[in-house]
Structures are given as structure tokens and as C-alpha cells.
Prior knowledge:
- It is built from five helices and three strands, in the order ααββαβαα.
- The chain is globular and about 45 Å long.
- It is mainly alpha-helical.
- A hairpin with a 2-residue loop joins β1 (37-40) and β2 (43-46).
- α2 packs across α3 (48-57).
Amino acid sequence: MHIVVNEDLKAYIDPLTAEEQEALERSLIKEGCRDALVLWGEILVDGHNRYGICQKHGIPFQTLQSSLFHSLEDVHLWMIDQHLGRRSVSDFQRGVLALRKRGILANRKPAAVSEPATDEIGASETPW
């Protein structure tokens, strides 16, 4: 299986501290990789740290192909939501992530809303 690590996605969320990285490595070596890595096609979306450690130590892992993503924005929003749900995220990081999410959502085009049809004199046609 070919997995592509997109460096922009890898850097999109703050990296683990040295202590967190060491704890994750010890856990993976002892217990194996319990959680599947999330992919969008061949692109790794979630599990960058686990993937690197598993590759380093030859630890087997599972992958999950997500059908939730239709764009890179979808991937970013999903990543933000995943990290906002974690206990270890600081208030500052929560603020940064919330602002990123707000920016993405603000730039998305609103869903097409149909305007009521008007007749020649501008009166709205209503079906009732």
C-alpha cells in the first residue's frame, strides 16, 4: 500500500511535544497500533505520528479510507474537529483551531438558496 504524507497536512496541527512523542512510541511498541490511520485516497489525513513510528519499528497498522472528504477544506475541517475533541489541547490551541475553522467556513460559498420568483411588477409568487 502506498501512503502519501502531505507535509502541509502533517504541519496543519501542532506537533507532539517530545514527551508525548516518546509516550506514543512506547505505547505503539508495547501494544501495537490500535487505531487505524485515516486516508483520503493515498493521502494520510490522521495518524502522521503513528505512521512514522510504525514505519520506524516495523509495527503493522490498519488504514481506513474515508468517504467524508470531497476537498482539502473538508480534510482541514475534519482535522480541526478531531483535535478540538481532545483533552490535551490548550485553550490557545483551541482558539487557533476555532479561528482556522471559522475562516474556512466563511470562505465557503453558501448553499444555493432559491429566491422566490417575481412577476413583472415585482410581487413574489407564492405557492399558497
